[in-house]
Amino acid sequence: MFSGIVASIGKVAHSGAAGEGLHLSIDAGAMDLSDVALGDSIAVNGVCLTVVGISGNVFHVDVSKETLDCTVGLEPGRAVNLEKALRLSDRLGGHLVSGHVDGVGEVVLFEAAGECMHLAIRSPEQISRFIAVKGSVTVNGVSLTVNDVAGDVFHINLIPHTLLMTNLRDLHPGSPVNLEADMLARYVERILAVR
Q1: Which one, of 162, 6, 145, 137, lies nearest residue 80 by Cα?
Q2: Phi/psi of residue 15, each to 5°?
Q3: Any idea what DSSP says for residue 99?
């Protein structure tokens, strides 16, 4: 479980085939790995991955074909948002994030709005029904508040701090992004469907 508050921007240092999936080596950037052990989870661009090795400031993960089929942004050289899994005693600064990406959206607008940036993303149909005004959504592992929704497009205001601390500053129209809907919305839908 994660909060969507990015700890560091890392970089995919190396990628190699591992069966139908990939083995990735990720430079953790400014994120301290001294308390990370084998088997721990780290969110990489919003994807919950299990640490299978550590070499100095680089951690290693295996990514399944299933994960590769529903995510983007794990190519060598790519800057990635990183967050360690929550401890029960941690503050929940964002919202509850599982690290199970629901699908890939597309940036349709990324423009200045004063000191901030206005971001609009087109989401796949299976995700858009869970996105609500003033609700939470995770974009590339970043917990964000939705300002407006128009059909399958939702709008977000990115403050300077978020732009400084995440790779969202590198977005542009056409950029694909990992999306995770608020898990509470999914549970509400399931409860109503069972009724």
Answers
A1: 6
A2: -140, 135
A3: S
- The DSSP output letter for 168 is G
> Which part of the chain is CATH 2.40.30.20?
8-84, 103-194
- Model confidence at 73, pLDDT cuts 50, 70, 90, reads very high
The CATH architecture assigned to 8-84 reads: Beta Barrel (2.40)
Pairing of strands 79-84, 58-63: unpaired
Task: List pLDDT tens digits, range 112-141.
Answer: 999 999 999 999 999 999 999 999 999 999
**Both structure tokens of 145:** 């508040």
Q: What is the 3-state secondary structure (H, E, C) of 102-124?
A: CEEEEEEEEEEECCEEEEEEECC
pLDDT band at 48 (very low <50, low <70, confident <90, very high): very high
pLDDT at 146: 97
| CATH code linked to domain 103-194 | 2.40.30.20
d(CA 104, CA 69): 10
- State the Cα–Cα distance between residues 107 and 172, nearest whole angstrom: 7
